[in-house]
Amino acid sequence: MPDLTPRDVAAVIVLYRPDTQVMEHVATFSAQLPRVFAVDNTEEPDSGFVGRLKEYGNVEYLPMDGNVGIAAALNRGIERAASEGFMWTLTMDQDSTPTDEMVTELVKAANELDEEPPLGLITPTHVREDKKRPKAKPGCTQAFVPWTSGDLLSTAAWEAVGRFDESLFIDEVDHDLCLRMHQHGFAVLRSGSAHLLHRLGAPTTHRFPIRMRVSNHSPMRRYYMTRNVLVVADRYGEEFPKFRDNLIHETRRGWLGVLLYEKQKLAKLTMMWRGYRDYRLGVMGPYSR
């Protein structure tokens, strides 16, 4: 692989009802990278926010005219980047804060790797915003199914494995792509020197009767989480049984957390049942009422 520089990378950031902090992230990428594609899933975009985005000369705003899901938005952004000749994209969500050196460290890590096996993606070390950043470590380690946000993604690998699965809509989209990369022989790695600060909604920690941290996702997210976990476990369980078992275990803990600690129990349990029902029926795509 020829030497890669930040000038060879385009950022794709997926927006959904973005707040003012997102503009700071866009500004960071605009200063570090030659092109930023802001793909907006917001049903009714804020004209003021869009106007500020367009003030950056290297930012292209791509409205999706409604919420088409994170997979479709990522695919659209990567397609645009590829059409301009970019072979590498930095995939971002709006809830993550890149550190100043993240892009540089990801690129540096890519340049230090051997050509075999071919590189699919390098992810940064994700750090919760309320936690202390770990000490930077040189080199990369294996990353089995990292989150999508902050990934330096090979366009060639993304194309070879079949792109992000738009039928999933949201949740398990990242796991699904990484598992296909493993199947196709691409390396999926984590940089120890690149850090990404991540917000995880509104989680809470409880101690009685069971010590547990719960996510407090909405009923609608519980639908997608339930349906897509079962779909992905079915798809890859035979080839990756340990991953399947861990996924199901964490999902059951999530269900227990809803029962014990979360609000809107009835609404969430109802949507989880509908997610299970649609999994059994083979219903995919966005939830249809």
Structural description of this entry:
With 289 residues, this protein is an alpha/beta fold. It folds into 2 domains: 6-198, Spore Coat Polysaccharide Biosynthesis Protein SpsA, Chain A, CATH 3.90.550; 204-281. 40% of the residues lie in helices and 21% in strands. It contains 9 helices and 11 strands. Strands 1, 2, 3, 4, 5, 6, 7, 8 and 9 form a 9-stranded mixed β-sheet that branches. A two-stranded antiparallel sheet has the order 10-11. α2 links the parallel β2 (35-40) and β3 (59-63). The N and C termini lie far apart (48 Å). The relative contact order is 0.12.
List the defining traits of the structure above:
single chain; 289 residues; alpha/beta; Spore Coat Polysaccharide Biosynthesis Protein SpsA, Chain A; nine-stranded mixed beta sheet; two-stranded antiparallel sheet; 9 helices; 21% strand; globular
Q: How is this fold's topology laid out?
A:
Elements: E1 9-15, H1 20-32, E2 35-40, H2 47-53, E3 59-63, H3 70-83, E4 88-93, E5 96-98, H4 102-111, E6 119-128, E7 140-142, E8 151-154, H5 155-161, H6 173-183, E9 187-198, E10 204-206, E11 212-214, H7 219-236, H8 241-260, H9 265-281
Parallel strand pairs: 1-2, 1-4, 2-3, 6-9
Antiparallel strand pairs: 4-8, 5-9, 6-8, 7-9, 10-11
Helix pairs in contact: 7-8, 7-9
